[in-house]
Amino acid sequence: MAITPFKVEVAEHILQDLRERLDRTRWPDEIAGSGWDYGSNLDYIKELVEYWRTTFDWRSQERLINSFSHFKTDIEGLGVHFIHEKGKGPNPMPLVITHGWPGTFFEMHRIIPLLTDPSSYGGDAKDSFDVVVPSMPGYGFSDKTVEPGVDVSAVAGMWAKLMVEDLGYQRFAAQGGDWGGAVTSKLAFSYPQNVIGIHSTFVYPRLTPYMGPGSRGLSEAEEAHLKQWNDWTASEGGYGHIQGTKPQTLSYGLNDSPAGLAAWIVEKYRTWSDCGGDVESRFSKDILLTTATIYWVTQTINSSTRFYYENRRKPWNMAKGEGSDVPCAIAVFPYEINGPPREWAERFHNVQRWTVMPSGGHFAALEEPARLVEDIRDFFRVLR
Questions:
Q1: Can you give the pTM of this predicted structure?
Q2: Domain span at residue 342?
Q3: CATH of the domain at 86
Q4: Cα 214 to chain center, whole Å?
Q5: Are the C-beta atoms of residues 309 and 243 closer than 8 Å to each other?
Q6: Residue 212, class by beta-carbon neighbours within 10 Å (0-12 exposed, 13-18 middle, 19+ buried)?
Q7: Structural domains of the chain, count
């Protein structure tokens, strides 16, 4: 189908049902004084749900969301939602930005204006971008997947079609974190003729370089990284294991209980960010609940977590001599869940810029929008 304008308009009866379900929340027990040790803290989730039920203004957030230009198009038989904001400068560079889980397109709302209109925020108009922020299949206002197999490679192919065939950008830049970082890497590997360069805040841990005969041995930093990742997976990776093995089972609870959905999502914003244990030092209740509400009203928690299942079954292992020549920049935020050394990323990417940030975590576009945008501008400036 042709590209058509799209507006986010959630029916009132859906919001009323949400409020009624919040009213009827059946709370679990909790060991006294355990804080967040066992997962989402009961007192905080009660506080958040009460705010969601009585104070949170979805219509206000909906107006913020609709202040951007939204569209839908059909790619590979699926309706894909995306934001497309044109740059205000002499020669804007096309840039596709991909979110991850438990994020949505909304995660980028703070960086879009800085990228499209730099001169209004103390920057140079020559650094402007035409910004495209799609919702991955099964996320937000894109269609849910109906066939198995929609993985990182499939999404990268959809984005290439969106940028080249639908929007007419024969050459474009790409940026992402979390699953978006994996999609961005795959764009560089599979569509080098179209990709100017990539910028990522996340080195996809399932992208495994060739380590057979003739390969360079592991450095001490690489060995330490692999141990760190294994330790993190053991202590914090339970969510990924269940989402990668039995997402359907999980969905019956999360798709039926908004309190359960919020607890599942918000715990990640606290654990994966540079918040010092106080999630609201980085994300307001409105930010957290806008994200949770997008998942709730679209009923996409199941289809979004299914992405873990699809990718778990398709490991990304490099062959001998395989790698990408596309220029690559990595921004390393200190509280990111995966922090390999530069030499690890250089095994498969053409790393031309490596920026160690002083603060921030997994949700860089929300936590450190100015620092992230500055790094994106600086990297792509030399590729224009």
A1: 0.97
A2: 4-27+36-381
A3: 3.40.50.1820
A4: 35
A5: yes
A6: exposed
A7: 1
